[in-house]
Specification:
The protein contains twelve helices and nine strands. It is an alpha+beta fold and 358 residues long. The structure holds 3,4-dihydroxyphenylalanine (DAH).
């Protein structure tokens, strides 16, 4: 038994040394450790070994098996690293600064609007953060006071991965991590002020107004004595800058489990000045930015004492804002790869949507 096991180990070592790509390792794993492989048959042979030698023989086989598993794992890491290095070296041979025959590219309208809004918030002392697109249920829902089976989840169906993770449905998914990361600001007697733009995903039926992939920009401010008037001030200032004119805003109650009270922030219609027109469906107002005072449970989940601190949060629809800002009527343009359509917005100022005659 010992001899057979050693032979097997030697055979395996020779073969493993000759592998050059990870796929070959998988082959080897099946060959040696598969149901019909030599390790299995050695295990089978244990039946014929006298009882007093069984334990030792079993141990020997197990050691070889473990050796094979560990060597494959180690070799796999090596081969993957080698492959990465090869790709990096190949990429370095490619000169990204080399001019192409076409003209240079242009920024995507979402990038343009994102940078603009970022600059405005930076001017108001906000830090800018990036966050994952793949998140877990806890961050996307539970930490935001949306327990399992909460009806608010119905509106946020998304794409689930086999790893139990999901594509984030809103930028609010970063709130917990951001509040934790920036707690040090509060400890130093400074407010937490952060915006975090990002790509979001939802299982939507696509039409001119709905996409399965879109962008939001979330913002939070937390300190002692933050109130709704701070929220209104920041939103009004930011929107007036974005639209390059003085904006009138109003708050309506809106329900989101992670804020209390929660609001829908509307801006007075820029086309009719509030009198009512087809663009605002005759209401005089356009819905733009849900927001509210951060729910005590959300603060607690981030380790902050809701008796001591309060804060506001908002979720600005960046894609929506870009549509309004540039007069884009169909959301599908953004992911269309239609360069002719997408390249025309750089340096453009606010485009008034066409006025429709009643
Ligand atoms: N995350 C919400 C959504 O995508 C939007 C939202 C509402 C964000 C209220 C907020 C907020 O920060 O306070 O539907």
């Amino acid at each position: 038994m010992l001899e057979k096991a050693q032979q097997l180990k030697q055979q395996f070592e020779e073969k493993v040394q000759a592998t050059t790509v990870p796929a070959e390792l998988e082959q080897l794993r099946i060959e040696f450790l598969g149901k019909k492989g030599p390790i299995s048959s050695l295990m089978g042979e244990l039946r014929n070994v006298p009882n007093e030698q069984k334990k030792e023989a079993g141990q020997i086989i197990n050691e070889v098996k473990q050796f094979i598993e560990e060597t494959i794992a180690q070799k796999k890491t090596e081969l993957v690293k080698l492959e990465e290095e090869r790709l990096i070296n190949a990429a370095e041979d490619y000169d990204v600064t080399f001019p192409t025959e076409d003209e240079t590219g242009s920024y995507h309208p979402i990038t343009l609007i994102q940078r603009e809004v970022e600059e405005i918030f930076e001017g108001m002392g906000f830090a800018i953060e990036d966050y994952d697109e793949i998140v877990d249920d806890y961050h996307c829902f539970e930490a935001l006071n949306i327990p399992k089976h909460h009806p608010a989840r119905d509106m946020q169906d998304t794409y689930y991965l086999s790893t139990n993770q999901l594509l984030k449905t809103h930028t609010s998914a970063a709130q917990n991590a951001i509040l934790i990361k920036y707690t040090k600001e509060l400890e130093a007697d400074r407010p937490i002020r952060v915006i975090f733009p990002g790509r979001c995903f939802r299982n939507e039926k696509i039409d001119a107004c709905h996409e399965n992939t879109f962008f939001q920009m979330e913002g939070v401010m937390v300190d002692k004595d933050i109130s709704i008037s701070n929220l209104i001030y920041f939103m009004k200032t930011m929107l007036s800058e974005v639209f390059q004119q003085d904006i009138t805003v109003r708050l309506r109650p809106g329900f989101f489990p992670f804020v209390e009270p929660g609001f829908e922030l509307d801006i007075q219609c820029l086309i009719c000045g509030g009198e009512g027109c087809p663009s605002c469906k005759d209401s005089g107002w356009l819905e733009l930015c849900p927001c509210g005072m951060i729910h005590p449970n959300v603060l607690t989940a981030a380790g902050l004492d809701p008796e001591k601190y309060t804060g506001f949060a908002f979720g600005l629809g960046l894609t929506r804002l870009a549509m309004m800002r540039y007069g884009i009527k169909d959301i599908r343009v953004f992911n269309s790869c239609n360069l002719k359509a997408l390249s025309q917005f750089e340096n453009s100022t606010f485009v008034e949507p066409e006025k429709e005659v009643k």
